[in-house]
Amino acid sequence: MTKTFCLLALAVLFCSYTHAQMTIKTLPYPKTKKVDVVDTYFGTQVPDPYRWLENDHADDTKAWVQEENKVTFNYLDQIPYRADIHKRLEFLWNYEKYSAPVKEGKYIYFYKNDGLQSQNVLYRQLGDNGAPEVFLDPNKFSADGTTSLQGIEFSKNGELAAYQISEGGSDWRKVIIINTEDKSVVGDTLKDVKFSGLAWHGTDGFYYSSYDKPTEGSQLSGMTQFHKLYYHKLGTPQSTDKLIFGGDKTPRRYIGAYLTEDERFLVITAATSTTGNELYIRDLSKPGSQIINVVNNFDNQHSVLDNVGSKLYILTNIYSPNFKIVTVDAGEPGITHWKNLIPETKNVLSATTGGGKIFAEYLQGATSLIQQYNMDGKLERTIQLPSIGSASGFGTKKEDKVTYYTFTNYIYPPTIFKLDIETGTSAVYKKSGAKFDPEQYESKQVFYTSKDKTKIPMIITYKKGTVLNGQNPTLLYAYGGFGVSLTPAFSTSNIILLEHGGIYAVPNLRGGGEYGETWHRKGIKLKKQNVFDDFIAAAEYLIKNKYTSKDYLAVSGGSNGGLLIGAMLTQRPDLFKVAFPAVGVLDMLRYNKFTAGAGWSYDYGTAEDSEQMFKYLYNYSPYHALKPGIYPATMVTTADHDDRVVPAHSFKFAARLQEYQQGTAPTLIRIETNAGHGAGQSTAQLINGQVDKWAFMFWNMGIKW
Description:
Elements: E1 5-9, E2 12-16, E3 38-41, E4 44-47, H1 59-77, H2 82-93, E5 97-98, E6 102-104, E7 107-113, E8 121-126, E9 133-136, E10 147-154, E11 160-167, E12 172-179, E13 190-194, E14 199-201, E15 205-210, E16 228-233, E17 242-246, E18 254-259, E19 265-271, E20 278-283, E21 292-295, E22 302-308, E23 311-316, E24 324-329, E25 339-342, E26 348-354, E27 357-364, E28 367-374, E29 379-382, E30 390-393, E31 402-409, E32 412-420, E33 426-430, E34 441-449, E35 455-463, E36 474-477, H3 494-498, E37 503-507, H4 516-521, H5 529-544, E38 553-558, H6 560-571, E39 578-582, H7 601-604, H8 611-620, H9 622-625, E40 633-639, H10 648-660, E41 667-672, H11 683-701
Helix pairs in contact: 2-11
Catalytic activity: Hydrolysis of Pro-|-Xaa >> Ala-|-Xaa in oligopeptides
EC number: 3.4.21.26
Enzyme class: hydrolase
């Protein structure tokens, strides 16, 4: 390869290469075998020739993964400036990162990463001025840094802690109990815990949730149906843990539990999908008390925020799609007895409590508005935030006088603030060490019109002075599902794009939660096409207004967002140059057959629901909607240990896309090994994945470096 010129910029040597000087020599795609498998839905026969790739533990699947990765990394290795991007991103990533502190017992705990450590380390100190000491270092859990700490809960007095670890990114967890003073292990390690919180009751034991583990050989993809709530008493074997709620009589439930701060009430939530839940309570101050049903349907969402004696504070969206806070006496907790405390507004409400106050956290146009109320529902103040963006945190214990929150936006690196609850004044507690100058960039919100004339918000971020000439490399990222709200957040990786004249755009599609449950329901089941139309309209807005053009536009999304990008590849492959469907739900006829996928049916519907639902899903299901044609440069990404959206989705989609690609653009699948759906990846894995994304995107856009 020939270097045409080099220049020193920002302490990193960048070199420019032209495509005329170098052509990537691609390996042939693996010859993926096809099998004669046909399913019949309402009289329609649906071939599934790549069904064999669903068998995650089969030797031929493992061999296919190795062959695909060989093709992918052979391609990526030839991109001449990939190493330069890696050097630059590693430099940008290498700064100290902190979490907001929390007080447990006599200690203050916080997470810290020195810069490039594989996993964040949990520290503690005595008071604000104590010397920090390492409490738990997940980097010592495994040699390769892929065993991660996935949550810790302390007993109320802070003397005991139970923490969860994930091995290789799996959702199946182990729980280890320790004495916090000397970090000695207490009792046995709990195994095969999945989708669980940990709720201490004194120092006697704690509540947790899990499934019966699927049979050996199908632990990654086997269906999990019977979620159960257990109580583990310290000093006893896990096999004797008492079943509290759930099981065979309540199939396909997600069971969660937590205690009120005074440990008087056990709160149990049961859900059949990602939206809506039953609500139960048990008064633990009364020996032998029964579990009482508060809400007996799944139509709405409810959670207990706090209590004062027998008075419960409940966050709910019943009759109020943007949520409100109500109170009720635990003696008669039914809906008919609920009294409004903080009514619904036009902005979506979430809430936390601390210091004897309620912090109402509103979404106002996908950005944060924080208001502080007393426990009688009287507004005391609006918390002054440093800018327009996302604020999170605020929750703390009742006796605390201060609390902490983190603020960020697309050009404001995460900064931790300390809030005096009595006066409402904030002060910077820990400033970000990110190597980024916000003054050089701007981030603005626009509203564009979707296909059905609905106005959709989008935040666009770029370097000041960028010329809108249609030639700016642009990444359009979205999600659009499950009531999830995409709020402004800083990304170290995005600096690579922004500092080279690129544009980052994030629309808030229907199906999300930015405007409450009404917004969410406009993008589910038979209205899922609204989500795709909103995204298409976002791309067309960027092109029309010359932020970019088809040849300089990349689209990206993960999980449900991976489904979105898969749909874009089949519906509008002419609209963009590069596509990144990540850990996507791509087979819409069989997603509910794996792990906890059945719980996604509220958003998607299933092929078994009705002939109408089957035809709707079959029409847009990315795996099934692929046809021979010309597709953009595509890099599908997944992980071999993803037991949430099983990698079979990506395997089958990539195999068929490679079969049908009639253009010259590469069709690759990058399969991370010893990793899961995303959480718990080592820093090296994260950096390598981002480097490969930018290198693939820039190269296929013909961008000089």
